[in-house]
Amino acid sequence: MNIKISYNWLKEYIKTNKSVQDFVKEFSLKSQTIDRIEEIGQGLDGVVIGKMLEIKKHPNADKLNVAKVDIGKKEPLELIFGQVVELKVGDQLPIAVAPTKLPGGLEIKAREMRGVVSQGMCCLDSELGLSDQDRVTFFPKEIKPGLPITQALSLRADYLLEIEVTANRPDAMSVVGLAREAAAVLGTKFDLKVPKPNLKIAKNIPLSVQVLEPKLCLRYNAVVMTDVKVGPSPLWLQLRLIFAGLRPINNLVDITNYILLEYGRPMHVFDYEKLNGQKIIVRLAKRGEKILALDGKTYELRPHHLVIADSKEPVAVGGIMGGELSAATEKTKTIVFECAAFDPVLIRKTARELNLHSDSSDLFEKNLHPQSTYLGILRAIELTQQLAGGKVASPIIDVGVKNYAAKKIKFDLASIKRYLGLEIPVTTVKKILTSLGFTVSGTKTLSVAVPWWRANDVVFDYDLVEEVARIYGFANLPSRLPQGQIPVEQPNLEFFWEDVCKDTLAGLGFCEVYNYSMLSEKLLAKVFFPASQALRINNPLNEEFEYLRTTLLAGILQNVSDNSKNFADQKIFELSNVYLPTKANDLPQELPKLTGAIVSNANDAFFQAKGVVELLLKKLGINNYKLVLTDSACPLWAKGQALDVILGKEFLGQFGLVKQNILDNFGLKKPARLAEDGESRRVALFDFDFKVLVKLATAVKSYQPIPEFPGVTRDLAVVINKTLSWQEIRDLANQVNQLIVDIEYLSTFTDDSIGTGKKSLAFRLTFRAADRTLKSEEVDEVIKKIIEKLQKEFGAKLR
């Protein structure tokens, strides 16, 4: 989390003469990283404070005025201004003296406007980069005309620091927290200015607070203040908000945002008159309740959302954002300040579910400690008394945890030697820990009491070692080359075979795709996978990401559909996990799947898929598998055009052509998109259990010497029933004689002349002997046996 604060603001809590560059270098090495330094006041060198001496209408333009302005020189400056802001004689305001260039890039030049020369410009805050509002900042009469605005606003010699604070350090997400860190880093004193408001009750106004969910709201502070005057904040406060990236609104809202920056403590302000029943109730939302938030949107609340409510309805979403209907406005006279501590997990879940995030929720998610709420409410009272004239109208209501029992850690100094490799004197260790706010006692074994602002991230003794090490300086730790044998990482077989598969498919012209692990019920239904067998996500981003996927097929087919607008032929694959439900409340079973699609002409898609599968299995060293016709009842595959791949009792996967009704679901209507060659396209898929492939894969290859003797090839064509597969013919022929070294499929032919329900299957046999050249008679004898066996087993006839 990045925050922006000025260096001068930080120095209000510490004493240091270090330049900003030296400070940033040392602080970044020992605490949080400072990513950027920006000089404040750049581009304002040509802007001074000017006093209006004379104002009159422009002689040649009704909507323009001509003014003479005292800028501290002998002759007054003459300039022209419009009617955006009403000015009068005696006003002192920022004047850009020509020629100059303002921070936003606007160049101010002396120029003639309808017969009158304007030598400068009256500047709005937005033009000076001091605010996003088109208004003028007026200066008191005590300021001498001609004084540079950088001096009038104390902007000279200040720098804006952009600091990256790690998520485990919410205590450092504020000016006070960073100043405490800086004091420890620089070895100087941390000067915390504890708020000391006047708590005398001027007029007692009733307010009751009920916390019905004490486990979700650990502490709740509130106070009523009256006679407040709502208006713009003073410029110094506005500037600090603007430089931090926050927009000034009015003095009450600005006070809460200022405390957010100063103490890292989110707050909220209600209009007391808009709270029904003079009550605040911290409770869970009721079914059907809604709230109009400050962002102008209406949110429907769920029963597990925590709300701040009055006697009738919610007025804020706890820890996230207030409601529009209870917000303080310019007419507000009596207010209620709220400062609370909420359960971080609840805040994070609620913000995600509502898609409603704020600076407050970002901090509450980091687990803010309840001890800081009272300090925040005191500071709010103090600033309201100073800036809005408010008076305390109730006691400070304090519900929940009030006292902090510091956790004590036994810290053996020997652990420093064990972890860091050097001995640090006990006095140095104590000094470092004390500077960070820890209370230390003991000599050899220390007893360290953890301050409340570090209670969430300092738990064990090695956390204390880290604190000592970073302030002592990592650069001061001894360094030496590692000794001994370098450990060798054990190869991960799954990663190895994953690379083999991806490289093989890429070499075949496939493109890898990555789809989301979450999909919709509608997408699952397109491939006839029931959503009831998938895990539903409790807080989906939207309905398109409602379920964890149980198949890669749906995503792959959606990719094919999206790509079909531009490509006739496609080859894509994905190797990712699917998620199968297990027992109740258990994590899902994650199974890696390898799924791919081939879009090609109708006569070629299936055989391309078959060739890809065979090559892939060959690269994995998987042999002797069988291809079995897939069950015709499967809703995915076209009847008789899909095969299961089986090795022993292991099911590896399947491939084949997709049914047309499934393609229709994805907008791949029949006939499929035509290519330039005019042929229709079909979609073939392969889907494998990658875990089984890894288990059966082997990288061991047996050496086969080059044959010494030539082989003999013979082609055969047999007429068989259409129901018989090539694999059955090949397996039977292969068993006839050991001289057969290869059987290669050639073609299949069907015609009425062959016979009804028949087909002609052609294949090539290769014969070879290891010790001699075969004679024709030997080969003829083997072929005769093959034909006889095919006739006996399958009723085959030689064609």
What would you note in describing this structure?
- The protein is α+β, with helices and mostly antiparallel strands and 799 residues long.
- It has six domains: 2-40 and 158-186, Phenylalanyl-tRNA Synthetase, Chain B, domain 1 (2-Layer Sandwich), CATH 3.30.56.10; 47-152, Beta Barrel (OB fold (Dihydrolipoamide Acetyltransferase, E2P)), CATH 2.40.50; 208-400, Phenylalanyl-trna Synthetase, Chain B, domain 3 (Phenylalanyl-tRNA Synthetase, Chain B, domain 3), CATH 3.50.40; 408-476, 2-Layer Sandwich (Phenylalanyl-tRNA Synthetase, Chain B, domain 1), CATH 3.30.56.10; 493-696, Bira Bifunctional Protein, Domain 2 (BirA Bifunctional Protein, domain 2, 2-Layer Sandwich); 712-798, 2-Layer Sandwich (Alpha-Beta Plaits).
- The chain is 26% helix and 28% strand.
- It is built from 21 helices and 40 strands.
- The strands form eleven sheets. Strands 28-31-32-36-35-34-33 form a seven-stranded mixed sheet, with helices on both faces. A five-stranded antiparallel sheet has the order 5-4-3-6-11.
- Helix 6 crosses helix 7 (251-263) and helix 14 (493-507) runs antiparallel to helix 17.
- The model is unreliable at 671-675 (pLDDT under 50).
